[in-house]
Design brief:
The chain is of the alpha+beta class. Helices cover about 30% and strands about 25% of the residues. Strands 1, 2, 3, 4 and 5 form a 5-stranded antiparallel beta sheet that branches. Strands 6-9-11-10 form a 4-stranded antiparallel beta sheet, covered by helices on one side.
Length: about 270
C-alpha cells in the first residue's frame, strides 16, 4: 500500500508526467530495478481481485523495441487481454507505476500494440501460468520527462468527458490520463437522486462502444484507457480524502449512445 505521502507524490505526477518516446541507452541500476518490482508487488493497489504479475524485460525480449528504451515493464495476468477485468486491473496498476517512475525521474510510455517475444508471452509465477497482457517502455529519457504546465496537455475539456458538476478537481485528474491515440474515449456520469450536499456520490465510468468492425481493435485499448483513467481518479479522490470504494453495478444505462458501462467509484 502507498503511504499518504506517496499518494500525494503520485497525485503531483498526474499534472506533469508525459509519455517519453526517446531514451538513453543507459540501463537502470540493479537496485533501482529491484525497487521498481518491489513497489509493483507490495505498494501498487489493485482495482479488483484479479491476479497481476510484473516483470522487467530487456530490449532483446520484445518484438519491436521502442525509442531506444533499455527496459520494458510488462504485466501478466491469468488470461492476458482476453479477460476485460484482468486487463482493467493491469492498466490500473501499471498507471500507478508510471506515476511512481515519473516521481523517481524515470520516463515511461504505454505501448498499446507491442508484444513480448514468444519466450516471454507466458511465465510461471508460484506454480501458475500467467499470460502477457501489456507493457510500458521505461528508462532515463533522452528528452524532458516532465511538462512545464497544464497547457502542454492536449486533452478534452471536462464538459466533454462528464455531465457532472462540482467535481472538477477529480475529473481534471482523470482527464489528464494518457489514452490510445489520444482518443480519450471515457465519460463520467452520475444520477441526480444520488446527490449529497449538491455533489454526486457515485461516479460511473463509461467508455466508447466501438462498432463491430472496429471492436476487436479498439475495445481492448479502450479497456486499458479506462483502467488508466480510473487510477488517476482514485489517486485524486484519495488525496482529497473522498474515496470510499469501487462498485460493479448491474443494469446501468449509458448517459448517451455509443457508451458502455465500466465501473463505479464511490465518494464519501
Amino acid at each position: 500500500m502507498w503511504t499518504d505521502e506517496e499518494l500525494n507524490e503520485l497525485n503531483r505526477e498526474i499534472y506533469r508526467r508525459k509519455s517519453v518516446r526517446s531514451y538513453k541507452s543507459e540501463e537502470l541500476p540493479v537496485g533501482v530495478k529491484e525497487r521498481i518490482l518491489d513497489a509493483a508487488k507490495n505498494k501498487a493497489v489493485p482495482l479488483n481481485q484479479c491476479a497481476c504479475v510484473f516483470k522487467l524485460l530487456n530490449e532483446a525480449d520484445v518484438e519491436k523495441p521502442f525509442g531506444g528504451a533499455p527496459h520494458f515493464l510488462a504485466t501478466y495476468t491469468e488470461q492476458g487481454m482476453a479477460n476485460e477485468d484482468e486487463a482493467l486491473n493491469a492498466a490500473f496498476l501499471m498507471q500507478e507505476m508510471s506515476l511512481y517512475l515519473s516521481d523517481a525521474g524515470i520516463g515511461s510510455c504505454w505501448l498499446g500494440m507491442a508484444k513480448a517475444k514468444k519466450d516471454f508471452m507466458e511465465i510461471t509465477e508460484e506454480g501458475k501460468k500467467m499470460q502477457f497482457c501489456k507493457m510500458m517502455a521505461i528508462g532515463y529519457g533522452s528528452q524532458e520527462i516532465y511538462r512545464d504546465n497544464l497547457n502542454q496537455f492536449n486533452r478534452k475539456a471536462i464538459s466533454a468527458i462528464s455531465n457532472l458538476k462540482g467535481l472538477d478537481s477529480l475529473l481534471e485528474a482523470a482527464g489528464l490520463a494518457p489514452s490510445a491515440v489520444n482518443q480519450q474515449a471515457w465519460f463520467w456520469s452520475g444520477e441526480p437522486s444520488e446527490m449529497s450536499a449538491g455533489m454526486p456520490k457515485r461516479l460511473r465510468l463509461f467508455s466508447g462502444n466501438a462498432n463491430i468492425l472496429m471492436n476487436s481493435f479498439l475495445k481492448p485499448l479502450q479497456t486499458l484507457d479506462s483502467g488508466i483513467a480510473l487510477a488517476h481518479l482514485w489517486i485524486a479522490a484519495n488525496k482529497e480524502k473522498k474515496f470510499k470504494g469501487f462498485l460493479d453495478e448491474n443494469g446501468v444505462k449509458p448517459p448517451k449512445k455509443g457508451l458502455r458501462y465500466i465501473k463505479t467509484l464511490q465518494l464519501m
